[in-house]
Design goal:
The structure is a single chain. The chain has four domains: 4-47, no CATH class; 51-116, no CATH class; 122-188; 200-296, Sandwich (Immunoglobulin-like). It is built from two helices and 20 strands. The protein has helices at 22-25, 226-231; strands at residues 4-8, 30-35, 41-47, 51-52, 59-61, 75-77, 79-81, 94-99, 110-116, 132-133, 152-153, 164-169, 181-187, 200-205, 211-214, 217-224, 233-240, 253-260, 265-274, 280-296. A four-stranded mixed beta sheet has the order 5-9-8-7, with no helix packed on it. The protein has a four-stranded mixed beta sheet with strand order 10-13-12-11, with no helix packed on it. Strands 15-20-19-17 form a four-stranded mixed beta sheet. The longest helix is centred in the last third of the chain and has 6 residues, at 226-231. The protein is rod-shaped.
Length: 298
């Protein structure tokens, strides 16, 4: 690096012609000449331009690097200003000057900069809760909606039999959805085909031990299972022998009131519907109304 060079003479006060190969120097020096009368020498001082070091040259540091490596220099020639530049962030690059040796001008200074690359995008990944659950399952445990260190939005409710639910596992870039993963889970439909008494939950006297008088009516509580109403099609229920109040399947629960009775009578609640396979599912439930002999309500 050129800082000073001289040409010696043997004759005091002599003048010399000289050439400087600036291309080989890599920068353009400025020249001060001093004629020496006492020693017969001529000194020429070379002022070098500032040159950015390997911490710059529009350096882009990878995400995860948070400090300049020891091998990095701010300037190959000149003094950095500020003396110790800060380290860049993704949103904010860092600039500094490498000052040339002539402090009276700025044309020999070099502007340097360093950047930090954008963070590596981490895509959302579905967890092991993505599966088909049996119809008698009641929750997701012990499974997870998303892989470790990822959040889901929203937290899904557990699917009903024969239904599915979905949720999203969020990626690291909250400004976009392209790195999100959409996940889903389902639950097997209830198999009504070979399950007895799976439609009717209750068909009981009100109360079960009550004995009605001759000429009065008997009341029977009934309830249809929620899943039967939700997942069986063409579901109908009726009471035999005929008469009395009707059964409304849509209400799922109610009270059947018999016709006026003169003797003990057996009633049967019968329900039928189609399951998801198209098969007919049937269910019956009995109830008996007792009548006190020889007593008639007035």
């Amino acid at each position: 690096m050129c800082t000073k060079f001289g040409v010696q003479t043997t004759t005091p006060g002599s003048k010399y012609s000289f050439y400087i190969n600036t291309q080989s120097l890599g920068y353009l020096p400025s020249i001060n000449a001093r004629y020496g009368n006492e020693t017969g020498g001529i000194d020429f001082t070379c002022y070098g331009n500032g040159v950015c070091g390997n911490a710059s040259t529009t350096k882009i540091f990878a995400d995860g690097v948070n400090a300049y490596p020891v091998s990095n220099k701010f300037c190959d020639n000149g003094t950095p200003n500020p003396k110790t530049p800060g380290f860049p962030t993704v949103a904010k690059p860092v600039t500094w000057y490498c000052l040339g040796s002539d402090n009276t001008i700025e044309t020999d200074d070099a502007l340097c900069s360093a950047y930090k690359g954008a963070p590596t995008t981490i895509k959302g990944v579905c967890g092991d809760a993505v599966r088909i659950y049996p119809d008698n399952a009641t929750g997701y445990a012990p499974y997870n909606f998303c892989s470790k260190e990822m959040s889901s939005s929203p937290k899904p409710a557990f699917p009903l039999p024969g239904k599915s639910v979905s949720w999203t596992c969020l990626g690291s870039d909250n400004a976009t959805t392209t790195d999100d993963a959409v996940c889903s889970a389902s639950r097997s439909n209830i198999n009504y085909t070979n399950v007895q008494e799976s439609i009717i939950e209750k068909f009981e006297n009100q109360p079960t031990s009550r004995i009605v008088n001759i000429g009065s009516k008997c009341k029977i509580d009934w309830k249809i299972k929620d899943n039967a109403v939700a997942y069986l099609t063409n579901l109908v229920c009726y009471v035999t022998p005929a008469g009395g109040s009707s059964i409304s399947v849509a209400s799922k629960t109610g009270v059947y009131e018999s016709p006026t009775l003169s003797h003990m009578t057996d009633f049967t609640l019968s329900c039928s519907g189609k399951n998801s396979a198209g098969n007919t599912v049937e269910d019956d439930a009995p109830a008996t109304c007792y009548v006190a002999p020889g007593v008639r309500e007035i």
